[in-house]
Amino acid sequence: MHLPDPFRMNDWDNRTFFWMFQALQFAFLAVVSLDLVGYYIPIAREALAFLYLTLLPGVLVLKALRFHDLGTIETLLYSVGLSLVVVMLTGLTANIVYPLLRYTRPFSFSILIITLVAVVQVLLYLALTRDKGRTTENPRLAVPSSPAVPFLILLPFLAIIGTYLRDNHHMVTFLFLLLVLIAVIGLAVGFDRFIPKSCYGLGVYTIALALLYHTSLISGYVWGYDIHHELNLVNGVLVPGLWDMTIPYNTNGMLSVVALVPIYSLICDLDPVWIFKIVYPLLFALVPLALYRAVEKQTDARIGFFSIFFFFSFFTFYTEMISLARQQIAELFLALTVLALIDKSMDRGRQAFLMVAFAFAMIVSHYGLSYIYLFSLVPAWLLLAVPERLQSWLPERLARVAGLLRPDPLGPAATTPIRTLILPYILIFAALAFLWYSTVAEGTALATVTGIGDKIWTTLFMDSAGPKTAQGLHILTSQSTTPLHSLAKVVHVATQGLIAVGLLATLLKRERWRIEPEYLAVSLVFFLINIAGIVVPFFASSLNTSRLYHITLIFLAPFAIIGGIALYERVTGWIRGIRAAPFMGTAYQALSAFLVVFFLFNSGLLYQVVDDNPTSMALDTTGDKPVFNAREVQGAAWLFSEGDERPVYVDGTRWWLLLGFDPGYQRYIPADASLLEPNSYLYFGTYNLVRESIRIETHGAVTTAMYTDADRFVRGHHRVYDNAGSVVYYR
């Protein structure tokens, strides 16, 4: 089936493009106008506003720069990335310029809608004038006729239904079914059944989105850790209608939070909570798609699919990352950078534009990821530049010494390989990072990395290093709670081994695996970062070991698959009878079985089935997790609505909930109840009340926690608020 390709509008002729674009814009403005006068059409405004913000500006930029014939996936990805850049820059500019013109609320709907439409019209003019005379036939969207297409499309809807039933009826059957189906898809690709290669890209996106939705949509409120602070900052922009860029928090300098979320919230007319829970997963699911395309272009479709299956099977992708909105957006820009980096056929000027634009967007989205990528670029560049210099200089030098070389000035110049990772790009990235982090949010993001460096240096050369200071080493050496959890640790360590084997195999057989030198160089540095996260004190704890490993998998995931193939070929070369064993007929079958086991451990499905210390946020509804119900949120809102500037004591889990309201007054409950200050509040959530227990945490490179009786902390306190789901005491 062939339809006009809406994802490649930049390849359309100008006349068709102009009228289609204006029709979309008119539909969007008409729906918004009807909504403003009281005629609300369900979902229409949210959907059209999302498309208007997420696709159209980027399509216009691509057309203005005459990007053509990129293909459906690349055009979609670059359109989204450039659209987000335009939207963030629009918000930043409005926040700076409008107050100078005495408009004190730049982040208000009326101002933003006019500004965005004006920006889009300027981009439309540039697109039509700079791309004059394009008369080629409009591209068609090739939709595979396979029955796998509707099956794959239904996966995110199964996640939505499953989370609704979980929240409202405590029924997780549909979420069980979803995870089982994803595991079956992994096996189907390994055995080359049902899912054709033409559907791999669609499958990568829909599986990723389903995994994200199966966790993000639990509870009617944001859940997790940092996201509560991000929500507090967003509300701090929406309420006054202005972003105060001087507030000294690292996160306050991230436009992915303080500009992008308020704009989506105002234009889509959605509460910021639902921007985090619905819109951001739609964007973040593009990260696996971009990485799949980058790997596929270097190897083949099956290696690309299994690389990304491994990447999003790791639990951090759909658990920790749900509560890190700023890193979701930054990873999208890093994935787009990877895709542009390995494309040697693109015009160098246009490629440089994409890489610099995505570099800036990454910097203003998440400082941690930007620092890691920046610090990896210099050694990666040296890995590429030094051998090139030696190769071009050393033979000529030796020949000149021997008197054998007679250079011909009229002869052809020596050819050098095209390299996309060059020193000017690194310098531009470093300059942009320094300028942004040193000026916004009182320079706290720059001070943070300096502090981490000082702590690492002090521990390495002055204090003792070990499991207490190296979080990754602590995870490896700590005793697992059950044999099944011990087996899971072995599986995780095995993936590290496969990555090491894959890197070695790639270095030894470059002609077979066809990994671009730039990608390989950065991957080698990321592998060293992975090792540093295990052994270097305080290195991983600044992000968490699991988050650091997740980041390194952005580059390293394909090498686990290459390592698995190389290992399979070597073992079956020694013992041919292995091929007759179940799931061992081919390397892909063996890999699919291993990755499905890896996925079942990470998703928590195995632990839930055998009731062995369940870990799944979605499947387990009884444990103490940072997932909060409406009554807990209501109690926290009441507490801070009182306006008292008194300390608020809360345990380690509920601490994150209160962070979203006012981070200035909350305190961790101390282990010694006598240390609670007088004239202070004590907040208990549902878990505290039902279990009569509170979580006491000790923070350091490794966070330790214990549960203790709650009764001894409320003696001498007066209950001033109680809604049967949360309680506030006053002393």
Tell me what you see in this structure:
The strands form 3 sheets. The protein has a 5-stranded mixed beta sheet. A two-stranded antiparallel sheet has the order 1-2. Strands 6-7 form a two-stranded antiparallel sheet. Helix 3 (56-64) runs parallel beside helix 5, helix 8 runs antiparallel to helix 13 and helix 21 runs antiparallel to helix 23. Residues 401-415 and 459-465 have low confidence and may be disordered. Helix content is 63%, strand content 5%. The protein is mainly alpha-helical. It contains 30 helices and 9 strands.
Shape descriptor: globular
Mean pLDDT: 87
Number of discrete helical segments:
30
Please state the oligomeric state of the protein chains shown.
Answer: single chain
**Radius of gyration over C-alpha positions, nearest whole angstrom:** 27 Å
Strand residue content:
5-15%
Cα-to-Cα separation, first versus last residue:
70 Å
| Biggest sheet record | 5 strands, mixed
Model regions low in confidence, pLDDT < 50 over at least 5 residues: 401-415, 459-465
Strand order of the largest sheet: 4-3-5-9-8
Secondary-structure class: mainly alpha
Could you tell me the number of beta strands?
9
Helix content: 55-70%
Pfam families: DUF2206
Keywords: Membrane, Transmembrane, Transmembrane helix
InterPro entries: DUF2206_membrane (IPR018701)
Transmembrane segments: 17-41, 47-65, 77-101, 107-128, 148-165, 171-190, 202-223, 247-267, 274-295, 301-317, 352-384, 421-439, 520-542, 548-568, 580-601
